[in-house]
Amino acid sequence: MTTAFRFLALPGEIRAMVYREALVPTTPEGLKEDLCSLAQPPLARVSRQLRAEAIPIFYGENDFVIRIENHSIRPVFNQERRRGVDVAYKRYIAMFEAFSASGSDGPGTSCISHIKSILVTYDHYHHNGDSSTIGFYLNYSKPGPYELPDWVRICESVVDWADFTTVRTALLNELGAWVLEETITLLELFPRARLAAMLWFCAKECPLAAKHVELWYDELDYFYRDDSDS
């Protein structure tokens, strides 16, 4: 007669190794793969103890990328793309509102409070037919690549990420100071209310990642189109 194997009978260190193998995907080269969803892994629904042990590893050791973009696979006009982004933005806000409501002790206490690395991007389709992307990189361990021209540290003065007014003011100051061409700034190109809400929700619900916050911008084809092809 065989005895049933009990996973929870293993030492905690061994269980943690199993969780990492199952929950932190890597490439063949051993690099971590980005995760594009904040949904809890099925393993977290097995039992309370497994959830308590697995959740900090899943959220704390993965790199998350959330893209607010048009998801249509067919060619569409910019107006349709903007509608697609509108839908994605509403889903983003609803998702973070749900996580915030699930926290045991207010903002920043839900399961995603363990996140230490997250990039949130927003695709904007301009009325002239061009497009560009802006986003925020929140990381616990290190700032972003300052040697690149499209990164800048923001909100260094913010001490309370739950204070929307403080976050909004700091963000708008950075957007207004980032000059792209002549006198055009990021503040003039992107929907400031949406960006403020995006950053506020993410930073207050992911307090560990909010240790370092960078503003990220990719002009795509807004200013640097090759007119020789036109």
Describe this structure in words.
- This protein is of the alpha/beta class and 230 residues long.
- The protein has a domain at 77-221.
- The protein has 6 helices and 8 strands; from the N terminus they run H-E-H-E-H-E-E-E-H-E-E-H-H-E.
- The protein has helices spanning 12-23, 48-61, 78-102, 164-177, 186-189, 192-205, and strands at 34-35, 63-68, 117-125, 131-139, 151-153, 179-181, 184-185, 212-218.
- The strands form 2 sheets. The protein has a 6-stranded mixed beta sheet. Strands 6-7 form a two-stranded antiparallel ribbon.
- Helix 3 packs parallel to helix 6 (192-205) and helix 4 crosses helix 6.
- The longest helix is centred in the middle third of the chain and has 25 residues, at 78-102.
- It is elongated and about 75 Å long.
- Mean pLDDT is 83; it is low at 220-230.
Q: What is Rg?
A: 20 Å
Helix coverage percent: 25-40%
Strand order of the largest sheet: 1-2-3-4-8-5
Uncertain spans, ≥5 residues at pLDDT below 50?
220-230
* SSE order: HEHEHEEEHEEHHE
Report strand %: 15-25%
Overall strand count: 8
Biggest sheet architecture = 6 strands, mixed
User: What coarse outline follows from CA principal-axis ratios?
Assistant: elongated
Structural class: alpha/beta
**What's the total helix number?**
6
